[in-house]
Fold this protein.
Amino acid sequence: MESKTLLVTGFEPFGTETTNPSWEAVKRLPDRIGAYRVERRLLPVEFGQAAALAIDAADRVHPDAILCVGLAASRTAITPEAIGVNVRDASIPDNAGSKPEGDPIDACGPAAIFSTLPVRKMVEAITAVGIPAQLSYSAGTYVCNDLLYSLLRRFDGTRTRVAFIHIPLASAIPVETSARVLCAAIEAM
């Protein structure tokens, strides 16, 4: 089996939290999942900066796929994102104090871009292991969406495929379980 490279990102804590389950789950992933060799990167919760660091990492490791993982505190299921939208709009400041209100991510970019990894198959793989999952059509307008849209825009027309998965708080789905279902989603890619 040909080896492929997968870049998986998670976020640092933000707001009043001291940990972020997205990074805690990503840290627990094995070094190999299916055909993929896994590269991990911790990203800041900062508009623009998270995407810049992910793109820089991708330029160094040349991944076949990029899977970003973020926290959706209000959700109770694992939610692969079908689409990134071209807007930054924050109800709270990011970790650098930025609080955009309706700004475009890319003034020349399309209004939205669909994920290029098989997000429906990911949902099926997650539910097959008995964990609640559903396809999401809104990655929000915070840093998670900023990262997804920016990566989809950057890698549009290339061999590198991109998707984003939101996980809930560890109180809803434990971090160890989130790591296990990320493995199932990756195996379905």
Summary: DSSP finds five helices and ten strands in the chain. The first helix runs from residue 21 to 27. The mean pLDDT is 97.
